[in-house]
Amino acid sequence: MVVSLDENEIKILQLLDRLGKADVNSIKIHLNRDGTNMPHSTVASILERLYEMRLVEREEVKSRGRYGKKHLYFVGNLKEDLAKRLVEEYIHLVGENDLNYLRKEVEKEYIHGTGDSVAFVDSKDRVIFLHTDGKTIERERLLGKDVFSLHPPLTRKFVQQLIHEMKKGMRDEYRRYVKNNDKTIEKIYSKVESPEGEYLGVIVISRILEDDSKIL
User: Fold this and answer.
1) How far out from the chain centre does Cα 78 lie?
2) Distance between CA atoms of 118 and 137, rounded to whole angstroms?
3) Which ranges of the chain have pLDDT less than 50?
4) pLDDT tens digits, residue range 191-214?
5) Could you tell me if 82 and 98 are in contact, meaning their C-beta atoms sit under 8 angstroms apart?
6) Is there a contact between 110 and 93 (Cβ–Cβ < 8 Å)?
7) Domains of the chain from N-terminus onward
């Protein structure tokens, strides 16, 4: 079963994800810098609980302290472990046959977000600009990434083929429509060239249609 976490446990997990490895004292100091005043004993208790839940790992190292040793904590494969637990919990609740539904919904939200957006993919297929009012897409985690790696397998080949055709001069623009829950999203891909005709990249505009009744 997936164990719920309180606010302080989440803060410590996020901090460890940022720091890599840290002992109790280092975590306490960083929490204080971030505006969270937490006693040493509380930090130690939370880390012990997270360790028992297998959400963090630890290793013993030598120390100049009273005991001559201390534990360094780190998140290890936290994201993968949590994802696995969530999938197992989902299957337990609704059955394995509905797993494909969950996968499709997650992929739609990840790619299309929850609002209008404008992105630019450069000639090396990297996302170097993104403006969106959606809450699902995290810009700092996408910028500089290979655009193909950000698509699920079902749409990755389509996007690869589309950009390939634009690079080869076979296509200047493409428009498609995606259903996301009760919304219809129009996605417009437009090739960008220099005055000399050199391929510079693709602008991708996504917008939610207020009226989709006229779509052919």
Assistant:
1) 14
2) 12
3) 1-2, 135-137
4) 999 989 999 999 998 888 876 665
5) no
6) no
7) 7-81 (1.10.10.10), 100-208 (3.30.450.20)
